Amino acid sequence: MQIRRASSEDIPKIISLLKSSLGESLLPKSVEFWNWKHLQNPFGESPVLLACEADEIIGVRAFLRWEYREGNQKYQALRAVDTAVHPNYQGKGLFTKLTTQLIDEVKKEGFDLIFNTPNGKSLPGYLKMGWEKWGKLPLKVKLKVPNKSEKASKTKDWEEIAGLIARLEKSPPWTEGVRTSQVPGYIHWRYRDCPIVDYQFASDGETFLMIYRLKEGKKGMELRIVDLFHHSDFGKNQRELLRNEFNQICKNSGTIWVSFSGLNYDSDILNLGLVPILDRGPLVTLRKLREDLNPKDLNWKWSLGDLELF
């Protein structure tokens, strides 16, 4: 068996392995999605390891590159994402072998930490390999009575806010703490160009940008707020504009509940009522790559957009 770094020529076989090992139930597996996620990422291409027998790929382990920032301090991070082992080779320690070898390699490349949001099945394996629980993101929810005379909201053109996005990506962070670096191209890549989710936005085109998605569930339509950006010109009048537009979006969409998961909820900006904040968001785990840095001690300001499963 050979373990080596992946190349672009391997992608069709990687997709085939993901499909045979994981199926299509959770996330779609396609060359387009893989390229967007691992090659077009503005933080850089993902380090990916493959296990091969002859010409067959029997295992894959990918870490998605990410960058966080607090003031002038940058943290080069990775997110543990796509992993799969061919059904004929499962239960033989290949997942652990690929993961630990890739950890050793990225340590030498100067990365600071790894983060992810494992499910209950995969969590024990990560904890054995040195991951630590940070905890669950807080979740704020608001129940709404759906509007009986729904009026479809007009889909907005991302080009209308291109200037605002450019300003946001050049501006210093609007809040203290460790946040995703707003490098040029990040917002478009993460939200406008995502091939599997139709993200929408509310904005005045000048000072604020709220990213959300509509998700149909068993209990009805959910409006899920995933990110909120603004800069120093965002004042009282702009907050009122945001609240008015937000309320109109909720009314037109037929939403029965609104959710805001993350560490940046501010009732002065967007008040979602009196329901207590719940400990029901994604479980975050961290793996340090530097002995002098414990990522659990950082002042994290994650948004849901940083941690949504994709």
From TrEMBL:
Keyword Signal: no
Entry-linked Pfam families: Acetyltransf_9
Residues that span the membrane, as ranges: none
GO molecular function: acyltransferase activity, transferring groups other than amino-acyl groups
Keyword annotations: Transferase
Residue stretches making up the N-acetyltransferase domain: 1-159
Keyword tRNA-binding: no
Protein name (record): GNAT family N-acetyltransferase
Native source species: Algoriphagus formosus
